[in-house]
């Protein structure tokens, strides 16, 4: 059940106007972030992301929260359930979508939707901002290219020779420290 309808405000380019099922309006600011992944040595020009999540890809549902809220806890729908279909997120490069599916596999349901729930704040607006911020952080994390692990190789012949030579030397040193009891046995 989709409780909200997204419409972009005509006079604000960086805002989304949300109308929920009760007719209340909320304006969510879409802040732009500078990402660690925006450095030229990390990504190609077409893979850079400015932090903007297009409104058509996000589905937001509201429910009653079990968290803080005082007298309003049983009256208002402050819990936010944000979902985005990772496979259909065309604003992300394919590499980032695949990495997002790997690193957040426990948060992706059987339909391929990344589910984020936020209910820590008392207001719907704050919870929605919190969920959007978490989504941005997940995407930032997926943009970072993991370093390749170096596989340990076997020792070279020279290092193996040196190891055996050192081992022999330590053995002779320790043998020299031993006391000989042969002269006392007679």
Automatic annotation (TrEMBL):
Every Prokaryotic-type class I peptide chain release factors domain range: 64-80
Protein name: Prokaryotic-type class I peptide chain release factors domain-containing protein
Ranges where the record places region Disordered: 154-186
InterPro entries recorded: Mito_Release_Factor_mL62 (IPR052104), Pep_chain_release_fac_I (IPR000352)
Composition-biased stretches (Basic residues): 166-177
Biased composition annotated in UniProt, kind: Basic and acidic residues: 154-165
GO cellular component, one term: mitochondrial large ribosomal subunit
Organism, as annotated: Acrasis kona
Biological process according to GO: mitochondrial translational termination
PROSITE patterns found in the cross-reference section: RF_PROK_I
Pfam families, A to Z: RF-1 (PF00472)
Gene Ontology MF terms: peptidyl-tRNA hydrolase activity; translation release factor activity, codon nonspecific
């Amino acid at each position: 059940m989709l409780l909200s309808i997204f419409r972009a405000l005509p006079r604000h380019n960086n805002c989304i106007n949300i109308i929920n099922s009760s007719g209340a309006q909320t304006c969510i600011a879409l802040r732009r972030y500078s990402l660690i992944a925006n450095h030229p040595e990390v990504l190609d020009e077409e893979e850079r992301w400015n932090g903007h999540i297009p409104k058509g890809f996000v589905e937001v549902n509201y429910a009653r929260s079990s968290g803080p809220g005082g007298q309003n806890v049983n009256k208002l729908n402050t819990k936010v359930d944000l979902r985005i279909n990772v496979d259909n997120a065309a604003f992300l490069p394919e590499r980032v979508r695949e990495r997002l599916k790997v690193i957040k596999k426990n948060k992706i349901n059987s339909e391929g939707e990344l589910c984020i729930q936020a209910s820590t704040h008392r207001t719907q607006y704050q919870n929605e901002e919190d969920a959007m911020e978490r989504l941005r952080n997940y995407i930032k994390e997926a943009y970072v290219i993991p370093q390749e692990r170096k596989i340990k190789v076997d020792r070279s012949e020279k290092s193996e020779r040196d190891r055996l030579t050192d081992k022999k030397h330590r053995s002779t040193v320790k043998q020299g420290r031993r006391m000989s009891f042969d002269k006392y046995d007679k």
